[in-house]
Amino acid sequence: MFQGTAGWPTFQVDFFHIFWQCPFRRTAHLTLSVCRVSSCQSVDSSELKGYSVIMPKLRHYDSLNTARFVTFCCYRRNRLLTHPLVVETFLQAFEAICVQYKIQLFGYVIMPGHVHLVLHPPDSLKLGPVIGALKSKSASAIIAGKMVELPASCQITKNGSKRRAFWQPRCYDHNCRSQETVIEKINYCHNNPVKRGLVAEARQWRWSSYSYYAGEDGVPLAMDALESS
């Protein structure tokens, strides 16, 4: 387990190597081979203190015919998903993406600063670009509709021009190789608001699939049926 300083994410790693570029300079390259990411909080460059970190390219294991547990965050973990209209707009975009790419949805939770999804994409589908399309589609609608006031920390400069960012780049996913794991991740989604102290019981959080599995009416998003084991 690698625990960074304040503001760093926590990684469980199977390889950690420091290469000193020069013995007279406080410059190092850190190569991390990540097997599980337990936090998607962005790294504050001010915490690096003279070190340069090479982040690994995230690998998505597609074509394994497994359900996937997907996590992605708002830019710099800002709490941008607190207004009902923003969440509803995201869910509409997500539902459209699921229909377009024939993705089965088994569970989800929309937290103030991040999203968890349990889904099953077609075997031939590359998940990374699809999540990118979901981010682009939802962010465009939210920003164009002026549904939320983006803080100054969401302003970025790219190629000399300034723009606003809603989502943090990239996403993290875990291949669920059994139905037990799928159910575990669904329950994780439902309990996340309770664990974070947002509500006392899972049923009190509207923006998750809990209400669907509880048989309530007027759920925000319907789920696909899990296959019987």
Please give a handful of descriptors for the protein shown.
Alpha-Beta Plaits, four-stranded mixed β-sheet, globular, alpha+beta, 2 domains, disordered N terminus, 229 residues, four-stranded antiparallel β-sheet, 4 helices
What does this structure look like?
This protein is an alpha+beta fold and 229 residues long. It has 2 domains: 2-54, no CATH class; 67-213, Alpha-Beta Plaits (2-Layer Sandwich), CATH 3.30.70.1290. 25% of the residues lie in helices and 26% in strands. The chain has helices at residues 84-101, 127-144, 179-195, 210-213, and strands spanning 2-3, 10-20, 28-37, 52-54, 67-73, 104-110, 114-120, 155-158, 161-164, 172-176. The strands form 3 sheets. A 4-stranded mixed sheet has the order 1-2-3-4, with no helix packed on it. The longest helix is centred in the middle third of the chain and has 18 residues, at 84-101. It is globular, with a radius of gyration of 19 Å. The two termini are 34 Å apart.
CATH architecture designation of the largest domain? 2-Layer Sandwich
Could you report the average pLDDT, rounded to the nearest whole number? 80
The total tally of domains equals: 2
* Beta-strand residue fraction: 25-35%
CATH superfamily of the largest domain: Transposase IS200-like
Helix content: 10-25%
